[in-house]
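Ticket #309: bound-state structure for norvaline.
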Amino acid sequence: MKHFINLKDIPAKDLRKIIVDAKKRKKLRRNLSTLEVDKGSPLKGKILIQMFEKASSRTRISFYLAIKQLGGGTLTLRSNELHLGQGGESISDTAKILSTYGDGFMLRTDSDKKIEDFKNYLSIPVINGLSPSSHPTQVLSDVFTAEEIKKKPISKLNICWIGDSNNVLDSLIAASVKFSFKLNIGCPKNFEPGKEVRAWVKKNNKKMFIYNDPIKAAIGADVIFSDKVISLNDKVNKKKKIEQFEKFKIDKKLMSYAKKDCIFLHCLPRGSEVSDEVFLGEKSHVWQQALNRVHVQKSILLYCFGKLR
Ligand code: CP
Ligand code: NVA
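RESOLUTION: The complex was predicted; output attached.
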């Protein structure tokens, strides 16, 4: 049984296989409408149970569409509607029930430990729909989008992240090792990636380049990524943190230091880290990026359900 919890724990060849499958599937359903099912209904009869302990628009809708397009269905729960969320039932009993009714479980949570606990108790695959340390489905889809737009393997691209060292960046760092791409990170000194992720990169004989000057990070970039400075449930002094990132705002001037044909990607939702001019401008591909999550999610589901061709 395959889980999809952290990119760093998934073999690089499997991640590549997922991307190749997503590319094929996206092409094959060019003329199909949103809810038409892919040929062969590969997940016919299967149900994905999704549970959100935090808000979500894209992850929730894209997983709904993904499993529908594969011929299956989904049920979306808020944890506070369950006995588990009310404190009246253990993770082990909840996991047993989920495994009895469902075929796969996707969880968005504030606790990495909860995902691990579910993994240990479930007898169905678990997908991490965002945790404090990781947003793997987002980043795998972003690799797909970067390659789709730039028409090159990501290993041939200079990737730049300007922003907070958060879950999305941690997954991007993991992707930089798995897919061997150059990663520049631009962030304030006290918001650099944590010790653990840095040690993991080193252990894998890889380097990432951290700059406390956004211009230095952006020079030569093919793709600039960003995310909100304040993440969901970020327990910080928000005003102070936003001020510390002011110099890192992605505007037209900063984009001009990157390659001429550099693109801008952002997982959404957005905050003040990017100007409207860039976010809504011609270098931005954020809507295509969001839509691609459906396509990549489908191949992630097939991988977890043991049906990836
Ligand atoms: N990018 C992303 O995961 O969006 P949601 O929080 O809306 O799911
Ligand atoms: N870093 C953000 C990503 C949202 C999709 C958060 O955790 O809220």
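RESOLUTION NOTES: DSSP finds 13 helices and nine strands in the chain.
TICKET STATUS: resolved
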